[in-house]
User: Fold this.
Amino acid sequence: MFGIGTPEVIGIVLITLLVYGPDRLPQMIKKVVGFLRQIKNVTDEVSNTVSKEIHRIEQSTEIKEARHLIEQNRNLLNESKTEIHTALNKPVSQPMQDTSNDQPIINDSNNDNEPSK
Assistant:
């Protein structure tokens, strides 16, 4: 942690022991450990907050993309609706004939001589 190895920690403990004495050394170690825990808690909280904000921004981007796709589909549907209305309201060039009395045309040219089964 902080790029400090074992020899450095031993050196710091020895210097602290010489400066503060053996009676106050445990209190100093407790204070240092408490301070390092506070730093770790703060960095964890900042990391969590940044992660939540990044997630929120990603969701916001996904929502914008979804809205854009919905708008595109809405435009396509409106265009299709307009085309359908135009095609339905287009006048017919030839009037439709009543074919209810017409006789069906049977083209059975291959089986002229064969009896029906």
Summary: The chain has a mean pLDDT of 81. The two ends are 98 Å apart (CA to CA). Helices lie at 6-20, 25-89.
